[in-house]
Write a structure and sequence with these properties.
This protein is of the alpha/beta class. The protein has a single domain, classed as NAD(P)-binding Rossmann-like Domain (Rossmann fold), CATH 3.40.50. Helices cover about 45% and strands about 10% of the residues. The strands form three sheets. A seven-stranded parallel beta sheet has the order 5-2-1-6-7-10-11, with helices on both faces. Strands 3-4 form a two-stranded antiparallel sheet. Strands 8-9 form a two-stranded antiparallel ribbon. Helix 1 links the parallel strand 1 and strand 2. Helix 1 packs across helix 14 and helix 10 runs antiparallel to helix 11. It is globular, with a radius of gyration of 22 Å.
């Protein structure tokens, strides 16, 4: 496992500027982590080029975006080469996809079996398709890069849950089940479904970084030969340090089953860095996004950002504004902020959650007691809001991804490690430098 390597100071300004390019390797959906990096790049005067995962037609064939779909994205330019990762839609020689195989497991999924040789066949087909797409993407990207430009590639691909009703049904219990509906993530992970998910997660979350680095090697050499730099950043998650009982302590969400693939992502970054490529994984704090919504309770540490904003000298002047903005979202206003802290204190002190604060054991599986208090705390905090669609955590998430984007952009210029952690301390310090997002 990669040793914990937190960024403690706001990075010095990078050498990026007008004429340089940020390439988003993946597709932007809504507001999330990568938007902070895009904002920071545009603030530095860089040009942003976007990718897409493409779409599937009625017959299941992967295609580029149509003109109408390109217009709907509302940004550009887009390198319109489908970068869909994974292999759950690839058909094996028997005509079945991974999704078909998983759906066929039925209710006795724990004791079922899967044809792993057939799954490997489709994995290889998906990998070959993706590598060909990366080559086409680089060829289409090249004309958009100015002579002598510095280029920053942002790897944004994550996830990899197979499209399967059976997987969705069981996963809902793993991530949201309490009481009689509790489902052990360890049992799930050691089942045929878990084995298939492990392969799929690694393919999407981790190996796509390897394909990006290798697939851009020729272009990277050309850019560097003309005096430009080529750097790579990737988004990771590996727990976060937040302020608990007056000190910064590492903690994590559980069960984060994608964590095994996130560790592989760090390993692949280290392998690339060993060959002289400047690639780093940035492990970001928990935020609330459309994609993280399935992980109910992942947002709990985010409330702790209020403590860090108070604690850090750089951000202390902003703290009152942030608290006021948060209080405005609560039914009982400012008075309810104290109750928010009480819930978090109880949650982090509960014996059932202590194992989630042992870095060496990451990623941890769930327990029934842990899920009960985590999901219960999440529900109580959500119920304190005036509007369930306008949460404190949505606002705090924007602060986090804004700060993380600034950190990643500027740290990438002089990065010397395969993996970094961005905790609430450096997030708060960075907001003190950049100011709150408008």
């Amino acid at each position: 496992m990669t040793p914990l390597n937190p960024i403690r100071k706001v990075p010095a300004p990078a050498g990026y500027g007008a004429g340089d390019v940020l390439v988003v390797f993946g597709e932007v959906f809504g507001r999330g982590y990568v938007n902070g990096l895009i904002d920071a790049a545009e603030k530095a005067g860089m040009t942003v080029l976007y990718g897409t995962v493409g779409r599937r037609d009625a017959e299941g064939n992967l295609r580029p975006l149509t003109d109408a779909e390109l217009a709907e994205k509302g940004h550009g330019p887009i390198i319109n080469v489908p970068l869909e990762a994974g292999f759950d839609k690839e058909k094996g020689s028997d005509g079945l996809t991974l999704s078909d195989r998983l759906n066929a497991l039925g209710k006795d999924w724990e004791n079922g079996s899967l044809d792993m040789a057939a799954i490997e066949e489709t994995r290889q087909k998906g990998e070959a398709r993706f590598k060909a797409s990366v080559a086409a993407f680089m060829a289409a990207l090249k004309p958009h890069l100015p002579e002598g430009a510095n280029v920053l590639f942002a790897h944004t691909m994550a996830g990899g849950i197979p499209a399967s009703k059976r997987v969705l049904s069981v996963s809902n219990r793993v991530f949201k089940g309490t009481g009689a509906r509790f489902q052990s993530s360890e049992t799930y992970w050691n089942s045929p479904i878990g084995r298939a998910c492990e392969i799929s997660f690694e393919e999407v979350t981790a190996r796509t970084l390897k394909h990006l680095v290798e697939g851009s090697a020729e272009l990277r050499a050309e850019i560097e030969a003309k005096g430009g730099r080529v750097n790579y950043v990737a988004y990771g998650y590996h727990g976060t340090e937040c302020l608990i009982d007056g000190s910064y302590q590492w903690q994590t969400y559980a069960p984060y089953l994608q964590g095994f693939a996130k560790m592989k992502l760090e390993d692949l970054a280290a392998e690339a860095r060993a060959t002289g490529v400047n690639v780093s994984v940035y492990n970001a704090p928990e935020i609330l996004t459309n994609s993280s919504g399935v992980f109910v309770g992942v947002e709990l540490p985010l409330y702790r950002l209020l403590n860090a904003l108070d604690h850090e000298a750089e951000s202390a002047p902003l703290s009152a504004t942030v608290k006021a903005n948060c209080a405005a979202k609560l039914t009982d206003g400012e008075a309810a902020l104290a109750r928010v802290q009480e819930i978090l204190d109880t949650y982090h002190a509960d014996p059932a959650t202590q194992y989630m604060r042992v870095f060496e054991n990451w990623p941890q599986h769930n327990t029934q007691e842990q899920m009960d208090i985590m999901l219960g705390s999440s529900a109580e905090l959500r119920a304190m809001h005036k509007d369930s669609d306008d949460l404190m955590t949505s606002y705090l998430s924007q602060l986090v991804f804004t700060a993380c984007g600034h950190i990643m952009l500027h740290q990438s210029w002089t990065a010397d490690s395969a993996a970094y952690w961005m905790g609430h301390d450096v997030v708060s310090k960075t907001l003190g430098v950049t100011g709150l997002p408008g």
